[in-house]
Amino acid sequence: MTVLCVRFQLPPAREAALPGLLGLLEEFTPVVEALPPDGALADLRGAERYFGRSAVELASVIRVRALALHGVDCVIGAGPGPMLARVAQRDARPGETCAVPEDAVVDFLADRPVAALPGVGTATSRTLCEYGLDTLGRVAAAPLSTLQRLIGARAGRELHEKANGVDRGRVVPNGVSRSLATERPFPLDELDPDRHRRALLSAAEELGARLRALDKVCGTLTLTVRYADRTATTRTRTLREPTAHSAALTRATYDMYEALGLQRARVRALVLRAESLTPAEQASHQLTFDPVDEKVRRVEEAADRVRAKFGPGAVIPGALAA
């Protein structure tokens, strides 16, 4: 299986262009998995046979079409599977495709830090580094039993396989229409956790207002933190009940951020995505008799009416979460 990981160079204001760019990929293969807000995985196994071209050659055609039809450049990684394509994409630059040779996967991974693997978070990386397992080559050479003692049986087995180039993932076609996202980039790489939290508060309030305007609720939130070194950490949380209320979204967002345990992290941007969207009328809600909660919801409804009449800038960000 040959997979491309494509990251489109979309500015925050052009996230709405992603469905069209996914359509461009679907001209080559129906097996496309959206990676909002600006990326996708594409399985080109059938396309290579149909077009008689390699994945790297098809990647060049995709790049040219994205530029010509949408004015958007992209960085592309290619590999035998989704995980390896993602790792390769992090090494790619605009205008080029970074490919992982099928016969040199272990060598390609060996010198990379353990955090380069998708799904390896800050806490796991810190634990492994404390024991000298700071590169994927060292993790691959470590006994499986050692990894399982350090990070758990299942996680240790999966990490050992991935470090040895075993990619069991697959591209799962999905749709980007069942989600909403907003991004908060910083003008300079930001170290201050308080500014991170203010940006997350603003993002959660915006998503809540957009969901309520569409009469939708979300069941899942995904937080992506992009760092100065071009890496990123993504965390997803399933909410206790589907909601469109800004206060509930803010609490869940803060919980995900705190769980990352960032210390002096140079953050370039924060992306918050509401997923598993369903009509609000179909959602079931737990009854509450908390007068404070009812007051917050009435204030929220009033704020939505003001936004609808005077525009989004009419309400001061942060007022609803006070």
Quick overview:
With 322 residues, this protein is an alpha+beta fold. The protein is 43% helix and 22% strand.
Q: Would you kindly provide a written description of the structure presented here, covering whatever features stand out?
A:
By secondary structure, the chain is of the alpha+beta class. Helix content is 43%, strand content 22%. The chain contains 12 helices and 9 strands. A 5-stranded mixed beta sheet has the order 2-3-1-4-5. Strands 6-9-7-8 form a 4-stranded antiparallel beta sheet, with helices on one face. Helix 1 crosses helix 3, helix 8 packs across helix 9 and helix 10 runs antiparallel to helix 11 (246-260). The longest helix is centred in the middle third of the chain and has 21 residues, at 193-213.
What composes the largest sheet? 5 strands, mixed
Strand content: 15-25%
Number of helices: 12
Strand order of the largest sheet: 2-3-1-4-5
Q: Total strand count, please?
A: 9
Structural class: alpha+beta
